[in-house]
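Data availability excerpt. The first of two example chains:
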Amino acid sequence: MGLVVQKYGGSSVADAEGIKRVAKRIVEAKKNGNQVVVVVSAMGDTTDELIDLAEQVSPMPAGREFDMLLTAGERISMALLAMAIKNLGHEAQSFTGSQAGVITDSVHNKARIIDVTPGRIRTALDEGNIAIVAGFQGVSQDKKDITTLGRGGSDTTAVALAAALDAEVCEIYTDVDGVFTADPRVVKKARKIDWISFEDMLELAASGSKVLLHRCVEYARRYNIPIHVRSSFSGLKGTWVSSEPIEQGEQQVEQAIISGVAHDTSEAKITVVGVPDKPGEAAAIFRTIADAEINIDMVVQNVSAASTGLTDISFTLPKTEGRKAIDALEKNRPGIGFDSLRYDDQIGKISLVGAGMKTNPGVTAAFFEALSDAGVNIELISTSEIRISVVTRADDVTEAVRAVHTAFGLDSDSDEAVVYGGTGR
């Protein structure tokens, strides 16, 4: 008997019919001889509605109480799903994150998993039950407070449980048929990828691909847990994410030169103007940002002006952290010694990802030629061995993604990619 962990996103359990459809799929996996653990997200837009409600009550809700509120969405889903499974003649038990043994640090709203102690889950499985776990949540190790893992944290919950339970696979069910060469909501001719390495998937996730959370893939790579990304709305084979290529029938799925094109419009750009070009200035800027617990992405420093000895440093960060970053830098302005700050939240990032880039000359040239032909101006550039990222105007992102996707022959000749659940995950 194998052990399978399945995760269902909000769009998969958006209503009663969706919950009953998911219950049938879970029971089918049980009938196939597997022990089944299910991680479930809140129904549809429940989390967004709870956030809106909190903001109506308090403009700055306390972290502890905010987490207590948000975790209610997953508790509703897990209980309803357990009921639906019991109606199909199978026993199911639902567990909150804390009951499932998901131990986190104490950072509210974006906690990180420290450990998973799934004793109650194992007991439920040994008794022949299906275990339903509320995703996105855990309990802090020190204060025993309820915590949330940040948006998309249910993916990480699922992989963490799969690792702790030594599962054969972690199946991530969403509203598309797998990982595509681009967001099928933007590129209708995007092609489904049969297999992708952890490394390429990490780059796509970090670059804006929303089908898998970056932390989820990072966790899976660390514990070598294969992920199968599938749609809960169809029976089609999805995308395998693993360390080694998989076998499909008699044919091995090979690594493509280019895995895909990702985009992200959730970032902003801050430019620190008039920074003295001397050792320690950049360190002071980014220490200020780090002390404010803000993650940054791309960084570019201009050549200093010979007449003034001053330079500009630009970096990108999440829009939601923009105000905090500006306030932190202004507070430390005397210590850093810059002239002014510029803030721009009308930017977008386009990234080309593929391990084959390392050994195929001309990829960089073709990427920039495609952007040039589409009339897209580039503001920042960042590269790694398997990724090229650029920042452009937000209005140019859609055209840029489509142009690059076509330029690298990624367009599908078959039917358009289907997005079953609208805009949800």
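And the second chain:
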Amino acid sequence: MEIVSDMNVLYEAFRASMKSSSWKEEPQRFEANFLSELNALRIELEEKSYKTLPGNEFEQNERGKKRHIHGNRMRDRVVRHALCDKVLGPCLQPYIIYNNGASQEGKGVDFSRRLFERDLHNYWLEYRTNDGYIAFVDLSKFYDNIRHDVTKAMICPKIDPFSGWLFSNIVDSFQVDVSYMTDEEYSRCLDNKFDSIKYYANVPKEARTGEKYMAKSANIGDQTAQNIGVYLPTRIDNYVTIVRGFKRYGRYMDDMYLIHPDKEYLEETLKGMYEEATRLGFFINQKKTRVCKLSDTYTYLQFKYYLTDTGKVVKRINPKSVTRQRRKLKKYHNLWSKNVVSYDTVKQEYKSWMGRYAKYMSKAQIRHMKELYQYLFKEDVRWKENTP
């Protein structure tokens, strides 16, 4: 019996899937009949008749960016947990560089920020100066432009045949209905940049007739897509760290940075990265890809940094993050006044956010945030014991 279709593995995946779900009613129904549901799922997998069922779709605004999210049904979440936790994760992990911090156990955004700060410190320790350069690279519409042929070619040979069949089945479920395209447009669609937000805003459901599908894109929110996103740009990672020999390089999903004292060498490396990205089917975001002096102020993972001539790494919260939190508080006030959320929920969210970010804010930013909270909720809340 293949590992993903093992009943014990499916049960573990079911328990993991119950921890979070975008469906409100279905998890309870699935849980009430989980043994029969899991057994039916096991049979589908063994007979290779398993297909992903249509889920729910919604748009989500994340840090000012609109994203189109596909929510999977509980049965499909179970399958993905089993495949990713037992097969994809263990098989792909050895190929992922240490400085890739996204969607991996024991890592995350804080881990990537610490490595970034460490690389800045270590640069000064090696050269005793902040006279150097840092480049930032961003892949435009990253998940939208994941090519299925490239994905299968890179991942399927690294997993067993049954898991390869299941993985291919899931990847195929990401394909986009492009029936509205002309034959000429369809012949070029894989080579053109795809934007899912524009697609769902401008292509009505009646135009998606199932006549033509584009084998491209991966659903944000799908666990399999997260594994793909972590692994697929490893060719870029290897080019930078092995071919070009960079000691100070890091990646968080599609956000990358490189540090080097020679600006020319850095720019030559960027050209090679562009070529590698093109081979993978990705597009470089020219607006976000730039080269800065280490002594300048630059943003990485929502924080602003610069390296002083004494080796100190100065870290400040991005003002845009403060603005978003202020807007969030106003929205919370509106929901609280309508009895949609409790005051305790609002209070804990505020204390949690301030407890995490206040040390990176200026005195004026802290004061203004406190004043806004007092104005909205008529209470002066302390987020830690020694808060003034």
